[in-house]
Amino acid sequence: MADKNPAYVAGSVNNTDDDDDIPALSSEAMAALKEFLAEQNRELTVAEDAEEVVLVTEDWRLSQFWYDRRTAEAIAAEVVSLCANLDSPQIACIACPTLYAYLKKIAPELEVQLLEYDYRFECYGTEFTFYDYHEPENLPLSLKQMCSIVVADPPYLSKECLEKVAETIRYLAKPEDSHIILLTGEVQKDLAAELLGLRPCGFRPQHSSKLGNEFRVFTSYDPVNRLDGWDSDLPPQQSEHQ
Q1: Is the dihedral of CA 109, 112, 117, 119 positive or negative?
Q2: Residue 56's closest CA among 148, 119, 128?
């Protein structure tokens, strides 16, 4: 489990003659270093007139890969469509900050909680909750079985990770009338059905950083003609998340 990491830690330096032996960076290298550090620590910004949300830089050490604009808009639109038929819906986004940012851009009135390991997203204030999938139920009691919609994107394509995230989903989801959306690899299809009764949709999510693994969207409900519908060649599954 990684701690928050600053860009660098500055220590004290004694002014001795040995300092003369320390090589100095060229002006070009210094400029490149400053640009790199600024990029690493860039805060989330959404310009009022911008069409695309800009997030902090992906941290591959945390297995962070942001959705491309097409994917983020499609999933956000699906969540908004679900909300239209729900009374005061509460939404949980597990490890999918891209979706959170797009939801707050297109429907800022929605009540959305982002569960994330990366403390850089603490800038969202009360809508940020620290989340470590190794402790799936170490969450505020105020969120227990309170969410009408839970969207999850497990950080790793492992059996253990999906099992832990499934525990979190069951902790958050309302016992009745809840909607689950899972974004994960094709390789997790059988496990997603076994743990949560989810079926894959025709829509194929993509990431800004092109990944080798094929990703899918799984849902606990029939999206009909949205998200390109459920795959028609699969038998119906009985949801087991309740």
Answers
A1: positive
A2: 119
- Tokens representing residue 39 in the block: 């990029």
- 149-152: strand order across its sheet: 128-130, 111-116, 90-94, 149-152, 179-185, 215-219, 199-200
Distance CA 200, CA 183 (A): 9
d(CA 212, CA 99): 21
* pLDDT tens digits for range 60-112: 666 567 778 999 999 999 999 999 999 999 999 999 999 999 999 999 999 99
CA distance 191 to 187: 8
| Residue labelled with tokens 């990491």 | 5
**CA–CA distance, 19 with 16 (Å, rounded to integer):** 6
Residue 182 in tokens: 């899972």
